[in-house]
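Step 1: inspect the first sequence and its tokens.
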Amino acid sequence: MANLPLEVDDVRVHSTVAMDLVCVLPVGHRLAKKTLIKASDFEGESFVSYSPNTGTRMYIDQYFQQAKVNRKLKMEFRNTHEIYPMVAAGFGLSILLPFHKYIELGYNLVFQPLEIAIKTELALLIPEKREPSMATKRFFEIYHEFMAEHESNQFI
């Protein structure tokens, strides 16, 4: 799985799903009770971000540049799963895909939608020159079943 756009020659996209990124913040944060987060709400806030060389970071940076908002970049990570614990620990806010499993695992987090949506696409990738294994094909089936059941729910 990968976020698009992706500049890799030796893979092909099997399928994609478009999702809105959300503001992820720790329970008790002053913005946690807001039902819609504006770009201006991030002004001066500590922010935990993706690394500069990721597509998602590019979209998030454009969002803040267009709104003329300065956030305080505290930490940068390549992986979504590294950012969630940092937000839960209170190091800052972030804009991420809404992986609900972190709340189920006991992370004290709140997901709030953004006033102006930032969309991203997740893609299932397979090698260009090799047929997917039986396990990979089964994973794709389960993935498609799961997404069909949850297509109205923006939280993964």
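Step 2: inspect the second sequence and its tokens, then contrast the two.
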Amino acid sequence: MWEYYEGKVILITGGSGFLGTTLVYRILQKAPCSHIFLLYRRNLSNLRELWNQWLPEEIVLKMLDPKRVTILDGDITKPECGLLVSNINMLRDKVNIVVHCASSINLVHPLGRISQNIIGATEWLANFALQLTNLERFVYVSTAYTNTHLFHATPEGDVRVKEQIYQLSATPNVQLEWSEVQKKGSSVEYQSNNFPWAYAYAKQLTERLLYDIFSCTGSSHKLLILRPSIIGPAQKYPYPGFSFPLSTPMTIFTAATALWPTLWARISTRYERPETEATNDEVPVDVVVDRLLTHLAFGTTGPVHAVSGGHARQTCKGLSFSLSLSARRLIAPSKSTKYGTAWSGLEEEISWLGG
């Protein structure tokens, strides 16, 4: 598949993040692309310092080779992503592929605070991409948890989510919905559907907005939406175990469990026995990157999941066993307490004992 990338010019946002860094590394390692442009809100020395903390120096030198990579000053939180007019014009003439990885991943902030970062920046980037002289593909990195509202559509504990765009109403008007969010910091659709976090709704609305933008211009065949689950440390590259601090949730949980004798974790589930039925879906970052690059090269359109799958997910009990091995101490879900109905129907509180 790598021959597809020969001579291609790629624009990447979020290239300094955990997923973006792995993506840049993999492209430079395998794909004979012509050039990569990275949108970065700080200067080159900051990026070099960041990568030098987690990557061997020889790899960093290759990833910052000016013959193959150009760092552009930009910020997705600003109008036109903070790009200079001269850079916008240059990109318009050169870029073939846009990969949009940059995004807030805050699960606490309200919709009004994160909407511009997630939805507004993506809208501008999509409209800009459609102005590119030689646009072939636009890739948006979403999340496998963008349709968490579907939990209430079925009595099952494990909800099946298809690789499709889910509308929130019978007569959707995504442009009006987005305008409402911009004006009020919320929308009728957001209030009518039970999302656990504003982040999930923002990603869900972004997917629908992208589909509308590309469909209205007859360009839906250029749009790829990747939905990764919980991203974990690398399996193989840049090296086994590669990760950024605070970028791999299960690693954080492992560290916390090892540091504190008793750790309480509250999970939302309908299962009667969450320790053996509820699961954790983590996929290595390099696996996510390879799925992205493979689907991009082979022309896949619409949403695609990048998840560990039904056979690879870990139960709470299995996770506790893995944590015990890594921490070399007893860590087990020792207590399960039922609570009243909440976002997910029944909440189960599990005490993870480490001692």
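Step 3: confirm your contrast with the notes below.
The chain has twelve helices and 14 strands. Residues 2-244+282-310 form a domain with the Rossmann fold fold (CATH 3.40.50.720).
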